[in-house]
Prior knowledge:
There is one protein chain. The protein has 21 helices and 19 strands. By secondary structure, it is α/β, with parallel strands linked by helices. The chain is elongated. It starts with 7 loop residues before the first helix and ends in a 7-residue tail after the last helix.
Amino acid sequence: MDFRWCNKAFTSITGYAYDDILGQRGSLLVGPSLEQGNHLIIIEKLFNWEHFSFKVLNNRKNGEQFWQKMSWTPLSDAETGDRWWLYSLVELEEPPREPVKRTPFPAAISDQARFADYDSRIQRLEKENSRLHELSKIVATEMHEDPLTRLSNRRHFEVELKSWIAKLRQGGPDFAVFHVDLDRFKSVNDTLGHDAGDRLLISVAETLRRLTNQSDFVARLGGDEFIVLRPLGDSALQLSGLADAIVQELQAPFAFEGKTVYCSACVGVAIADTGMDVPEQVVADADSALGRAKSQGRGRWSFFTADMQAEATATRQLVSDLLSACENGEFVPYFQPVIDAGTGRFAAAEVLVRWLHPAQGLLPPSAFLDTAASAGLLKRIDEITFAALPDILTSFDGTDVGLPRVSINISAGRLVDPAFIHDIKSSGIDPERLTVEILESVYLEQIGDAVQWTVDELRELGVTIALDDFGTGHASVQGLLQIRPDLLKVDRKFIQPIVEDETARALAASIIGIGKSLGISIVAEGVETETHAHFASDMGCDYLQGFHFGKPMGSEDLRKRLDETQGIFWHR
């Protein structure tokens, strides 16, 4: 059994919130104070589908003991075949007294008195039965209804979708799926609070009710996602018209307690027709169309096409291959040299991940990182790459030109992962030989207590902190002041034009000057020629990195390069 619904009184008595119990097993409520004998009796009666009541000592969520009277009533729906238990709970102010032994009716009692007693009992039972029947209707409604918007919920949508698909297979009408997702919902919660967010969701639900027909089906999937099912009409304009109306209506400003925000929406549309081999795929198709709409900007809608079908198939295959790659450890670290601008000597190497695909060979990050991020696999790839570094560093320690320092890029997930610090401590890598590079955009998006704690812990360990791609974020100086890195990496977009473009030189010089004024060492990325190297060095960069000194290479190739050059990559 699992919980499908509860009322406020239930949460008040037990201490469990609605979200705590929804979908959880009934055994969640069995506290340590509930005697095993009573527990076994309850289980037996549940298995036998009996109506029963019990008075027991049990525990609230916080462990506090309390006496309760529990009543279990089996309910069923003849139309759907659904069966569930109605669990009623009453808190008792004091332990139950010993039951009073009832004496049987004396033999002399009249038939009329006996009939009146039986009639009274029957009336009470009928009244209780009516109450339970009405309550069962409420439970059935709540099971299929989103409590905030009063639209159908995800569970009801899944049931309804199966019904629409079954009718489609029996020759019923084709239908369209509209997947609606708000664009700025998080900002509403962050700026105006969750009450405003709830009010916005209710407003969106009212808009969808107004724009749809009685033959349509509207549901809230959860969060800020909604879905609409609509039978196909005679004209495609009925579909495009609805999608366009949703986008246009939800672009209107939303006011809450005197404050106004704009929260647009994107819509993905797909059609389920009789020619589909797997009509159930229509929801995933609508989701793909939604992703395409969001990639093109806010307040848009997109229709699922054959191109998206091929792209979705390729993405699913890529995700499957990535999962296998994580299991088989197919990700390997590659290294790009970082050169001391003053001496021209090898100073460090940036670690860049490559995928050693069993069929396609070596793949660059551009071939898989975006998909890995959307599939939630970046953390695992980071872990695999990081785990390979201790042995590689050890192998360099016995050579004439060692590998003094490595730098690793950290994904947003790893930056807020408490296990990241533990992984560094237990890796065997000397923290003073490690640089952690944080993308400025990642830092600014994720800034908070968890991020600040990670940065502080890294610094305390002796790890060097670098702020990567500086100048490409939305508030670069703000990020710089907050993180106070040891290294500032100037993005290649600012370094590459400095030879021929005087304006670009001035801009790069300004960025370098900001870092220098704060006592931060500067790394120039994108150094591709000798002239680039001289310009960047003369402008005050402390370290140089780019194809002029070497493309990313495997550890063995790096060792050979160091042997050939004796660690001298550049002469000023």
